[in-house]
C-alpha cells in the first residue's frame, strides 16, 4: 500500500520565546482534503511554509510523496515545489500581463513540458473550471471568482502530489466562495492529489474530508456541529 502523500512527524518550530508548533503530526492521503482552522497567530501559515519548504523546522520531519525535505538542498527543494506542489492563495497571484491560458500554462513551461502537451493540459483544466472560453482573455477582464478558478487550474495543471491552499476564499463573497471551494475540493479528489486547506471560513472547512484545529502547537480533530 502506498504511503501518505504528506507525512509530517513530530514537527516543531519556535520563534524567539514562543513555541509555535510543538511535535505536530499530520498525514494526508492521496485524494484527501484536510482543512486546518485556528485563531490568528496559531501557526497555520508557519505550518504551510514548513510543508512548502520555505522555512526550516527546529525538529521533526516532512515527507512529500516519500521524499524527506531535510535531505534536499535549496535547489532541490525549489525543484520539488515546482514539480510536486500546487498553491492557491487568498490573493490570486495571476500575472496581469499574461493571458489566462498563459497564466495556467506557466508551471508547465517551468517544467519544460512540450508545447503540445501544455496546450492539451491547459484546455482540459480550463474546461474543468468552466472557463474554456476565456483562454485568450486578460486577467483584468475576469471577476474575482473567475480569477480564483484560474488559480485553481494553475495549481493543478502540472499534476502535483500536494495542493496547499491558504485562505483561498478570503477575498470572495459567500456564493462565489462556495463555488470555488466545491470546485477546488472536486478537482483535488478527482485528480488524486492531497490537499491542505488553511481557512477561517467554517463553510470552506465543511467541504473538507477532515477538519483539524491548530491550538497550542498541536492539531486536534474538530467534531462537526450537529445539524
Give me a quick take on this structure.
With 227 residues, the protein is an alpha/beta fold. The chain has 7 helices and 10 strands.
Mean pLDDT: 93
The run of helices and strands is EEEHEEHEHHHEHEHEE
Instruction: Give the strand order of the largest sheet, numbering strands 1, 2, ... along the chain.
Output: 6-7-8-3-9-10
Number of helices: 7
Structural class: alpha/beta
In CATH terms, the superfamily of one domain is P-loop containing nucleotide triphosphate hydrolases
Rg value: 17 Å
CATH topology tier name of one domain? Rossmann fold
Helix content: 25-40%
Judging from the principal axes of the Cα atoms, what is the shape? globular
- What kind of sheet is the major sheet? 6 strands, mixed
Which oligomeric form is depicted?
single chain
- Amino- and carboxy-terminal Cα gap: 36 Å
CATH architecture of one domain: 3-Layer(aba) Sandwich
Q: Spans with pLDDT under 50 lasting ≥5 residues?
A: none
Report on this model:
The protein has 7 helices and 10 strands. Helix content is 34%, strand content 26%. The chain is an alpha/beta fold and 227 residues long. The chain has helices spanning 44-51, 74-84, 100-110, 115-128, 144-156, 174-190, 202-205, and strands at 6-15, 18-28, 33-37, 59-64, 67-68, 85-89, 162-166, 194-198, 210-215, 218-221. It has a domain at 6-95 and 159-221: P-loop containing nucleotide triphosphate hydrolases (Rossmann fold, 3-Layer(aba) Sandwich). The strands form 2 sheets. A 6-stranded mixed beta sheet has the order 6-7-8-3-9-10. It has a 4-stranded antiparallel beta sheet with strand order 2-1-4-5, covered by helices on one side. A hairpin with a 2-residue loop joins strand 9 and strand 10 (218-221).
Amino acid at each position: 500500500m502506498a504511503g501518505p502523500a504528506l507525512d509530517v512527524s513530530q514537527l516543531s518550530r519556535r520563534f524567539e520565546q514562543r513555541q509555535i508548533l510543538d511535535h505536530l503530526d499530520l498525514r494526508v492521503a492521496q485524494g484527501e482534503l484536510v482543512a486546518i482552522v485556528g485563531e490568528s497567530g496559531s501557526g497555520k501559515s508557519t505550518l504551510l511554509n514548513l510543508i512548502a519548504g520555505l522555512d526550516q523546522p527546529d525538529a521533526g520531519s516532512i515527507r512529500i510523496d516519500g521524499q524527506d525535505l531535510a535531505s534536499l538542498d535549496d535547489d532541490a527543494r525549489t525543484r520539488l515545489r515546482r514539480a510536486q506542489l500546487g498553491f492557491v492563495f487568498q490573493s490570486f497571484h495571476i500575472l496581469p500581463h499574461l493571458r489566462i491560458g498563459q497564466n495556467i500554462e506557466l508551471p508547465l513551461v517551468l517544467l519544460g513540458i512540450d508545447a503540445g502537451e501544455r496546450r492539451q493540459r491547459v484546455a482540459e483544466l480550463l474546461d474543468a473550471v468552466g472557463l474554456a472560453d476565456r483562454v485568450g482573455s486578460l486577467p483584468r477582464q475576469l471577476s474575482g471568482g473567475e480569477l480564483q478558478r484560474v488559480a485553481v487550474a494553475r495549481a493543478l495543471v502540472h499534476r502535483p502530489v500536494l495542493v496547499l491552499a491558504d485562505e483561498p476564499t478570503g477575498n470572495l463573497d459567500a456564493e462565489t466562495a462556495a463555488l470555488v471551494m466545491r470546485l477546488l475540493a472536486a478537482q483535488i479528489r478527482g485528480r488524486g492529489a492531497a490537499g491542505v486547506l488553511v481557512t477561517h471560513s467554517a463553510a470552506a472547512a465543511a467541504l473538507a474530508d477532515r477538519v483539524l484545529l491548530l491550538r497550542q502547537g498541536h492539531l486536534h480533530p474538530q467534531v462537526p456541529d450537529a445539524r
